[in-house]
Specification:
single chain; 372 residues; 2 domains; 8-stranded mixed sheet; 9 helices; binds flavin-adenine dinucleotide
Length: 372
């Protein structure tokens, strides 16, 4: 360990009012709402990697809030009230993103969300679900059956297509970068390559041990480390799961446009500049995908390759230019954990799918939970 200078002490390692851990969407939006509410408070956000490295920069960029089969499945597991509460948070979160950033800054595209159905089963619930969604979107037909698009998009063995005009797509990398820049302009200090290893809560504040040559100190700390939270807060009910993605080379005459879901949201794909970005299939190997290893696996990638050529591209097999994985968090319940764990420590974690939309509201909830 090096000694530190008085200049370094004053400029970089001075005691803070609030330190936020993790620069994914949860940490960034938490810092955003905190700084907006308490502009005079001194805030530092630390991130262990040189860029955010979990789920936020490795997802599919869907700006969505729920497909019919996923909503039905969530109602079955969580109940109606909690499911609608979660959808409401996502819907409002998307609104916040669009209020804060112009479309151009984050490549926001109001391309619509779609769901492919291979059976009729869930259609009988469409009217009832739309009634509940009306309280959130204000529209009596949030999700519309539009089977005529099946041919237009060129799908094979798909019986029905549902459309949600409120959904869209964005560039998660640009959103991360724009949010970080905004925070810096608001006066939040961000330090990358700084990993929280341990912390001690004392009467006078929280002492943080990191890889830095000195301990950091704060009045309050917010932990936004999502799937990587167990070492810091072992009592939390969450574990890491992996999501995998592939991206094709440009496909000639690609017919799909929009963000598409299939099978309770376990499969998702979109047209990204005439290339297909396809992800998911975690339900084909739940056990293997219960991991925090940030690498792709042959089982899932082969499944994605097959889905691509069989269902989306009618036998075409374009070159794959990118394959990657990201890590998100799940637990007994799908609802994120946002709570004060002690006098000076709050957490906002356990975001699984649709965290792009959720995080702006999760950040706001974290601020409400804090002892400020
Ligand atoms: C493949 C995939 C596709 C997805 N597609 C979509 C989609 O299309 N739309 C959507 O809405 N959602 C999607 N999601 C979900 C969404 O990406 C996540 O819910 C969301 O990004 C979670 O954000 P987060 O900030 O909570 O977690 P993360 O983005 O994982 O951020 C946590 C951060 O904490 C840092 N960290 C961890 N431990 C420490 C420590 N000890 N000290 C300092 N820093 C630490 C990590 O490096 C990381 O940067 C997808 C997820 C995956 C994996």
């Amino acid at each position: 360990m090096h000694d530190i200078s008085i200049w370094e002490q004053d400029a970089f390692f001075a005691p803070q009012d609030i330190i936020i851990i993790g620069a994914g969407f949860s940490g960034l939006w938490t810092a955003f709402h905190l700084k907006k509410k308490f502009p005079k408070k001194k805030m530092l956000l630390i991130e262990r990697n040189v860029i955010p490295f979990g789920a936020s920069g490795r997802n599919a960029g869907f700006a969505c809030f729920g497909s019919l089969t996923e909503i039905i499945s969530d109602i079955n597991t969580m109940g109606l009230d909690k499911t609608m509460q979660l959808i409401n948070l996502r819907f409002k979160g998307l609104k916040t993103i669009r209020e804060v950033f112009p479309n151009k800054a984050i490549d926001y595209d109001s391309c619509g969300g779609f769901e492919l159905l291979k059976t009729d089963e869930s259609l009988s619930r469409l009217g009832e679900i739309n009634k509940h969604l009306k309280c959130i979107t204000g529209s009596s037909k949030t999700i519309n059956q539009n089977d005529s698009l099946i041919k237009k998009f060129g799908f094979k063995s798909v019986n029905h297509l549902l459309e949600n005009k409120f959904e869209g797509a964005l560039h998660p990398g640009k959103l991360l970068a724009a949010l970080s820049q905004l925070l810096i302009s608001m006066g939040v200090q961000i330090m990358y390559a700084t990993e929280l290893k341990e912390f001690e809560e004392k009467n006078e504040g929280v002492l943080l041990t990191t890889n830095l040559p000195t301990k950091l100190k704060a009045e309050q700390m917010v932990i936004c480390t999502n799937a990587f939270s167990k070492p810091l807060l072992p009592e939390l009910d969450l574990y890491p799961v992996r999501g995998q993605v592939l991206l094709t080379a440009p496909v000639k005459n690609l017919k799909i446009r929009g963000c598409f879901h299939y099978d309770e949201g376990f499969y998702y794909f979109r047209n990204l500049n005439d290339r297909v970005l396809l992800g998911g299939a975690r339900n084909k190997a739940f056990e293997l995908e219960t991991t925090d290893e940030m690498s792709t696996s042959p089982v899932i990638q082969t499944e994605l390759d097959n889905f691509l050529s069989e269902t989306i591209l009618r036998g075409k097999k374009p070159a794959i230019t990118h394959r990657w994985a990201g890590i998100m968090a799940v637990g007994a319940e799908k609802f994120p954990i946002v709570k004060r764990v002690s006098k000076r420590i709050t957490c906002a974690v356990r975001l699984s799918g649709m965290g792009v939309a959720l995080a702006p509201r999760i950040g706001k909830m974290a601020v409400q939970e804090m002892n400020l």
